[in-house]
Specification:
By secondary structure, the protein is mainly beta. The strands form two sheets. Strands 1, 2, 3, 4 and 9 form a five-stranded antiparallel beta sheet that branches. It has a four-stranded antiparallel beta sheet with strand order 5-8-7-6, with no helix packed on it. About 10% of the residues lie in helices and about 35% in strands. It has two domains: about 90 residues, Chitinase A, domain 3 (Roll); about 45 residues, Thrombin, subunit H. Also involved in hydrogenase metallocenter assembly, probably by participating in the nickel insertion step. This function in hydrogenase biosynthesis requires chaperone activity and the presence of the metal-binding domain, but not PPIase activity.
Length: about 160
């Protein structure tokens, strides 16, 4: 079975940034990442690189910033009340943290300034503007369950655990 839209694809990966340093490595986790292919759950270039692959395939792919986290926008900054951050009192300039959004989602941000009641953040993803190199090993492909397609993401180990 090959990886295609509406299949749950499991894979291990290592990501190297432009500076040559490893920025993420799924092999250090208990389970490979599992995603519902074709639903925008991962960066576009990696999702496209997985299409048509089979279990056991190992490959490398280098992605431009446009195919990864997009170009860096120097004007993408915002002042946010501290109540939207977990552990706001411990945050300092340069920290990368998760901002809770009103609709229930999350966004990775970088702290620019910490004030008494608000925190200034850079809304660019920390890897925005970078070319990234992925080393990928496909470990599983299966048909998605109807609930997974309805929810738009994989359930279970390596995916969303609510399912």
């Amino acid at each position: 079975m090959n990886a295609e839209k509406n299949k749950v694809v499991s894979f291990h990966y290592t990501v190297v940034g432009e500076d040559g340093n490893v920025v993420d490595n799924s092999r250090e986790r208990p389970a490979p990442l599992s995603i519902l292919l074709g639903h925008g759950n991962i960066i576009p270039g990696l999702e496209k690189a997985l299409e048509g692959r089979a279990v056991g395939d190992k490959f490398e792919v280098e992605l431009s910033s446009e195919e990864a986290y997009g170009p860096r926008n120097p004007d993408s900054k915002q002042r946010v009340p501290k109540k939207y951050f977990s552990g706001a009192q411990k945050l300092k300039v340069g920290d990368v943290t998760v901002l809770s959004l009103k609709g229930g989602g999350h966004r990775v941000v970088t702290v620019l300034k910490v004030g008494m009641t608000a925190i200034d953040v850079d809304l660019n993803h920390p890897l925005a503007g970078q070319k990234l190199k992925f080393d990928v090993e496909l470990t599983g492909v299966r048909d998605a369950q109807p609930e997974e397609i309805a929810h738009g993401h994989a359930h279970g180990p390596g995916g969303n655990e609510h399912g």
